[in-house]
Amino acid sequence: MTVIRVDSAAGRLRFDGMDMACTLGRSGVCAADRKQEGDGCTPAGSWPVRGVLLRPGRVEANGIGLPWRWVREGDGWSDDPADPAYNRPVHLPRAFSAESLLRDDDAYDVIVVLGHNDAPPVPGRGSAIFFHLSEGRPTAGCIAVDKHDMLKLLPMLAPGDIMEIA
């Protein structure tokens, strides 16, 4: 197990000798037990790295050691606390609110799914906390890095790794 360390005060992500700038939630970092859906806060804590979602035609799937798959049309992630599938992948459209994983920007060309609030999900305690590509602005609660840095880091990740946000 390797730890990806996020120093929120410095805006830095460190992993296996690498040190890179990262972007966090627009509302900063909060204690995980205070995280609420839509608050723009990145939850502090240690979160397992679950797997990777990749956008076809935007990145290559070279050397990835984590479970991964291509994002497909209709892929979404439930962000509606009333949804029985809250904080889970879903197919769009659906009756409940969900975020599309095929965005107009490049942020979700690479999505590393983190195990925040997923075992089991507690409705309203935050959904879709991902490690993804930076768009040069704060996230909605995720952790983001430049594409170049992500592509360097991605093949180094392995099952059992965790992201520690402090």
Automatic annotation (TrEMBL):
A Gene Ontology molecular function term for this protein is:
transferase activity
Where, by residue number, is the active site?
Answer: H132 (proton donor/acceptor), C142 (nucleophile)
The UniProt record lists the keyword Magnesium: no
Segments forming domain L,D-TPase catalytic: 1-166
Q: Pathway, according to UniProt? A: Cell wall biogenesis; peptidoglycan biosynthesis
PANTHER family documented for this protein: BLR0621 PROTEIN (PTHR38589:SF1)
What protein name applies here?
ErfK/YbiS/YcfS/YnhG family protein
